Amino acid sequence: MHMGRLFWKIFVGFWLTVILVSAATALWFTLQRLRPPQDIVIEEMAARTSMAVVRSAALALAVGGQDTLAQWQETLSPTQRRNFSVEAAGFDKVPVPALAASDAVALDRHEVLAPQASIRATAPDGRTYALKYRETVEGLPYSDDHGPPAQLVISCLLGSLAFAALLAWYVTSPIRRLSRAFDRLAAGDMSVRTAPSLGRRRDELADLSRDFDQMAERIQGLVDARERLLHNVSHELRSPLARLHVAVDLARLDPAKTETSLTRIEREAQRLNALVGELLTLSRIEHGSLRLDAHVDLAALCAAVVEDAGYEGSMSGKRIHMTTMPPAAPPPELMLGSPELLRRAIENVVRNALHVSPQGVPVEVLFTHDLAANAYTIMVSDRGPGVPPESLGAMFEPFVQAHDGKREGFGLGLAIAARAVAAHGGAMAAVNRAGGGLTVTIRLPMNR
After folding, report:
1. Residue 145: predicted pLDDT
2. Three-state secondary structure of the chain
3. How far apart are CA 51 and CA 63, in angstroms?
4. Which residues have a Cβ under 8 Å from the Cβ of 131 and sit 6 or more positions away?
């Protein structure tokens, strides 16, 4: 299996860290073993012994002078006599050398030297002497190897090697899966997902994998939407083009029907132009190429749309009523956006509601300012046939005809309206009303 650079960086970095920590621990362990705690106790006992020896020598000197001290010194062992010294002017009867370096080397490697004890004593003749003694005792035996056992060191290194490899694999494994998933996605496989292979893993790499899955789902949705759009556009273009061909053929076969055929050709050309215009509008909105920096009085814009729609609906016995609910505090009168896009979005929803509403039953438009949510809300309610519940989520997609196809056009109006609202930072939703009908809600932020 190919191991990437990140694997080796993690592996080598972690293993070096383990080695350095282990070396530092071994050094500390070695230094501690160079001076076992038992030697400290032995050293304290030797210091007390040294002090007892010099006090005994001082007593002998004080009682009998130099002769008595010399006799006392004869009772010492050769090692003790070597470690005992007297410093006094003219006192040459007793050798007084300090412990020389050669003597220190001559000590057994298991011996421990206590701190030197010193005391001043006065002989009967009035002379003062400095009596010094350093006790030498047997220490605990040391092993030749003061560090940790070699077998333990090797076991620790092998264990750290295995753990470093496992850690590096644990970190880089999801990255390699992500890399393979990106390759498959780039090759056109939109169904690739990485979350199922992570199990119950909960870390940053798992979050990255889930983000990849969301991205893949979004791309798959966009690709599917593009394919549906191409299919629907082709379908919508086929019918008017077929009628154009029929009108041209009729004009050629029967010159008397040329005027009728030209009228039909003009109508179909206008229909094609309208379709292309709506597609261009939809494309510009989706790509964010429209300017949304004009100041818009949304309440006045909504009232104007309702007034125009009411005037047109009155010719067919349709009515529309608008209610405005201002908050206690006046909201900002203007919002930034595109007046044309906002007008088109509101107008499409209102006209659709008028189209499906029965005569004599007014369409209700409720305009509210929600200061707590910092948003405008426009609710358009009709008493038409409503929309099948399974179609509510798809009615804002291109070429989807709501109300069982009772609406006119290409099915692009609500799609354009929804995307126009989304471009302003808002959202659209639709719910069926109790007792029949549909309520479409447009929600827009006061300040983007």
Report:
1. 47
2. CCCCHHHHHHHHHHHHHHHHHHHHHHHHHHHHHHCCHHHHHHHHHHHHHHHHHHHHHHHHHHHHHHHHHHHHHHCCCHHHHHHEEEECCCCCCCCCCCCCHHHHHHCCCCEEECCCEEEEEECCCCCEEEEEECCEEECCCCCCCCCCCHHHHHHHHHHHHHHHHHHHHHHHHHHHHHHHHHHHHHCCCCCCCCHHHHCCCCCHHHHHHHHHHHHHHHHHHHHHHHHHHHHHHHHHHHHHHHHHHHHHHHHHHCHHHHHHHHHHHHHHHHHHHHHHHHHHHHHHHHCCCCCCCEEECHHHHHHHHHHHHHHHHHCCCCCEEEEEECCCCCCCCCEEECHHHHHHHHHHHHHHHHHHCCCCCCEEEEEEEECCCCEEEEEEECCCCCCCHHHCCCCCCCCCCCHHHCCCCCCCHHHHHHHHHHHCCCEEEEEECCCCCEEEEEEEECCC
3. 18
4. 54, 57, 58, 61, 84, 85, 86, 118, 119, 120, 121
From 244, 262, 289, give the residue that closes a domain: 289
Total domain count, the chain: 4
Tens of pLDDT, residues 247-265: 888 888 888 878 888 888 8
Which of 234, 262, 289 is the endpoint of a domain?
289
Shared domain for 274 and 298, answered yes or no, is no
Handedness of CA 391, 396, 401, 403 (dihedral sign): positive
Six token digits for residue 221: 């949705």
Q: What pLDDT score does 104 carry?
A: 36
Domain shared by 277 and 310, yes or no: no
What is the crossing angle of helices 204-253 and 150-186, to 10°?
A: 10
Which residues are tagged catalytic?
A: 235
CB 327 within 8 A of CB 352: no
Q: Do 303 and 210 sit in the same domain of this protein?
A: no
Residue tagged 């035996």 (tokens): 141
C-alpha to C-alpha distances, 141 to 33, 44, 79, 212, nearest whole angstrom: 11, 18, 20, 66
Cα-based torsion angle of the residue sequence 100, 105, 107, 113 in order, rounded to the nearest 10 degrees: 60
pLDDT value for 138: 59
Q: Are residues 43 and 134 in the same domain?
A: yes
- pLDDT digits over 212-236, tens only? 888 888 888 878 877 877 777 777 7
- Which comes out higher in pLDDT, residue 43 or 215? 215
Euclidean distance between CA atoms 405 and 390, whole angstroms: 15
Domain containing residue 215: CATH number: 1.10.287.130
Q: Same domain, yes or no, for 273 and 302?
A: no
